[in-house]
Amino acid sequence: MPASAAVADGHYQASNETTEGGNWTAPGPFGIDELRTGGKQISSGGSQGPPESTRMLPTGGVVLKYLPLNPAQSSYQPLGRNQALKTDYLLAYTSAFGESVGDYEFVVVFWQERSTEVNGTQQTYAANQTVQRIGFEADNGYSASKLQLQSHFDKQWQATAWLEKDGERVEGARWRFAHQTNPLTASPAYPTNSKGDLWRWGTLNLIIPAICGIMFSGASAKHVLSRTIVGTLKGVSYWAGVVVVLIGIAAILGTWQTSIILANAPIAVGILIGLLALPVMLSIRDSDLSKAGFFQRKLRQGAISPSGEETVGTRRVPNKIKSVYRHGEQLYAPVSGLRPMLARYWADPARIPTEDWKSYDSGEGDLDQLFEIDPESEKVVRHKPARLKFAPSLTKEVADEDLTDPPEADGIAALPAAISATVSNWVTRRNWRFIGIALGGGAAVYLSTVATLGSSIIGLGLATLPALIEGHEARDGTLEVDWGPSHWNDVQAQVQTERHEYEERQTFDQVLEAVTELEWSEHEKGQQIVDRVRTEIQKALDDEHGGNSPSTNLSPSSPQQGVDADD
């Protein structure tokens, strides 16, 4: 096919034609056999000779090179045979002398291989052909010209290129490669002429916005914690995993939108990097919770008081252990997680003012605080954390007096009034606040995103945020307990005092009993000695007077009887 058949920037999608004789003509100005043919390779490349993308000119040569995707590499590499090119930029290095000096056109045909069945035969052809012409000048001696190709973000295209001079093809100056634009290469910094260019662009568009975003994240984390009291109660590792997942999802869904963002608002990437520091700031500034035990003393019958009387006793049972956080004059019982944290931001968290505490004591072991609950309370603790509930509604409750009463009359004459009342009540029952924010806010977000970033897909995603935010309802948390009676601690102190006194009295009684037993034992021993002495005296008297004398009772417990004596 002669070169004159190619036109600049044209799309060829002519339908397949079948002649009367059954001959089939493929669409497009170029046949697939011609487009599959590459140029004449003059070298195998490498260190043994010129690069393989080198082509000869009548008096000179030309080499095509490309810039790799590695942002740290600023040197161009030779284009390989049938290489999949991921950038839109090529560099044509020329060495021209004599008749080879002058203006050239770099002609590129982009096409896709397709197959169709014609009269029972499978035919392969080059479909969707697009021709691009790029003019450049080869100076005398050595020179380099930058060639910018059309972008192809959706899929990979086949490309066949050649050189033309004065409307005629340069023999042998022909290349074959594949082309698919990587979005990152559409950055204004690509291609870079030096690493300094790359650092300058990265500083202005990534580093500075990222630093500003980190500073904003730090201030935002302080503000958020002032309202939520504590963060998500998750560690840095948790947030690191979340950030990795979010970045992965964003990379998958927004692959073909990255170039649009970098081209229109590259600082958005730097701001996003800074905003990712917000969860890290929240986790670093998060607080540790303590353990509090809420105890309820169960009453039991049949207990014995210190005085020995039957009474009512108590038995302390550990009923509830809560993770709490004391901040200022409030005791909070937060729940871990992102949604509970957001709920605490919009609603009042579950808390108990310290001034309401009636029975409090320091804890033991793993418990930091102890609270006594009324023994007659049905529940030890009633805890309902602040929460978010997604409950979007297109309707709302309306009082009957705010509705229009239907007409009392019947018949066709009353039909307009009945229709008017029905329409009025239907309009009154609509939740226009939610509808307005969801539709109006969504449209505003979509239009502003498209105007700023030029991406309709990102705009549609962000347009759902107003409906999601307005559809959520933040509900206050509650933390309630029935404290023990106001004199509960005094009663406990009295019981402890009586118990101590009881133990002391019990000890005294035991000592008194021991002393008494000791005294009676010694008394009995003395009485036995006295009885023995009296017995010995009586025996001596009997021996002295000879014979039995009237018995003399010397017992001190009976009256002493006199003895008749004649002397």
Question: Any key phrases for this structure?
Answer:
567 residues; alpha+beta; Coagulation Factor XIII, Chain A, domain 1; 6-stranded mixed sheet; elongated; disordered N terminus; disordered C terminus
Q: Mind telling me the C-alpha Rg?
A: 51 Å
The largest pleated sheet is described as: 6 strands, mixed
State the helicity in percent bands. Answer: 25-40%
Low-confidence stretches: 1-21, 551-567
Number of strand segments: 23
CATH architecture of the domain at 32-185: Distorted Sandwich
Hey, roughly how much beta strand do the residues contain?
25-35%
What is the name of the CATH topology of the domain at 32-185? Coagulation Factor XIII, Chain A, domain 1
Biggest sheet strand order reads 1-10-9-12-13-7
CATH class group of the domain at 32-185:
Mainly Beta
- Describe the global form: elongated
- Mean pLDDT value: 77
First-residue to last-residue Cα separation: 186 Å
Category from helices, strands and their pairing: alpha+beta
What is the count of DSSP helices, taking H or I runs of 4+ residues? 12
List the helices and strands and how they pair.
Blueprint: E1 10-12, E2 17-18, E3 24-25, H1 32-35, E4 54-57, E5 60-66, E6 77-78, E7 84-85, E8 89-96, E9 102-118, E10 121-138, E11 141-148, E12 157-165, E13 168-179, H2 195-228, H3 236-253, H4 258-264, H5 267-275, H6 277-284, E14 290-304, E15 310-327, E16 330-332, H7 338-346, E17 351-353, E18 360-362, E19 369-373, E20 382-384, E21 387-390, H8 415-428, H9 432-453, H10 456-463, H11 465-471, E22 472-475, E23 478-480, H12 488-545
Parallel strand pairs: 7-13, 14-19
Antiparallel strand pairs: 1-10, 2-3, 4-5, 5-6, 5-8, 8-11, 9-10, 9-12, 12-13, 14-15, 15-16, 16-17, 18-19, 20-23, 21-22
